[in-house]
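> call design_seq(struct)
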């Protein structure tokens, strides 16, 4: 009989301890919730700032590539000629590429310009997300991420066309033409935008615009 009572007492003590631990866990969880939320808010804001910086830098690289005239550099009997998407320069003298413009150059221009537009739209979405993370069901950073990925994709198409055509030219095969810094910047913008696109999908928040 005493053994039975002792067993019952031990069992009751164990149950009491379990109830106590459960209450303590609930208490700590309630106390730590504001701290977890504050940490989450700081983290998402930091990631959003990083996204804005990455997007701005990537857009600057791509825009510089579009507007500068160092896509290819060619040795001629008149001297060193460097050419971009819009103009050709011999020394300090530059002039716009005259019609008829080669088809591959029009294709390259078109895709790079589409990429720039997508890059600008992506940056605008990030800027708006500092005030409103989502508009209705649309999560702005996810849209910005898709736009950043699209920017990198369109840039890749543009530079692939440009590279394929120029590498088949006789002057390139004779080592009289090399790709320049503007061309290199265009390539650099691709991984920059892919990295930016990946970064957009980390921060999450529940604040919405009604």
């Amino acid at each position: 009989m005493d053994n039975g009572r002792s067993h019952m007492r031990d069992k009751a003590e164990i149950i009491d301890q379990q109830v106590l631990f459960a209450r303590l866990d609930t208490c700590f969880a309630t106390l730590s919730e504001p701290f977890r939320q504050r940490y989450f808010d700081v983290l998402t804001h930091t990631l959003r700032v990083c996204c804005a910086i990455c997007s701005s830098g990537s857009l600057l690289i791509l825009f510089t590539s579009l507007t500068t005239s160092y896509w290819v550099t060619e040795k001629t009997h008149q001297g060193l000629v460097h050419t971009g998407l819009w103009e050709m320069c011999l020394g300090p003298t530059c002039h716009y590429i005259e019609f008829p413009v080669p088809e591959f150059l029009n294709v390259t221009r078109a895709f790079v310009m589409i990429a720039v537009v997508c890059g600008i739209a992506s940056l605008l979405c990030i800027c708006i997300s500092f005030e409103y993370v989502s508009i209705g069901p649309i999560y702005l950073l996810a849209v910005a991420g898709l736009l950043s990925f699209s920017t990198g994709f369109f840039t890749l198409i543009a530079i692939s066309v440009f590279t394929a055509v120029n590498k088949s030219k006789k002057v390139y095969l004779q080592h009289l033409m090399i790709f320049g810094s503007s061309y290199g910047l265009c390539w650099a913008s691709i991984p920059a935008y892919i990295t930016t696109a990946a970064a957009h999908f980390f921060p999450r928040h529940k604040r919405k615009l009604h």
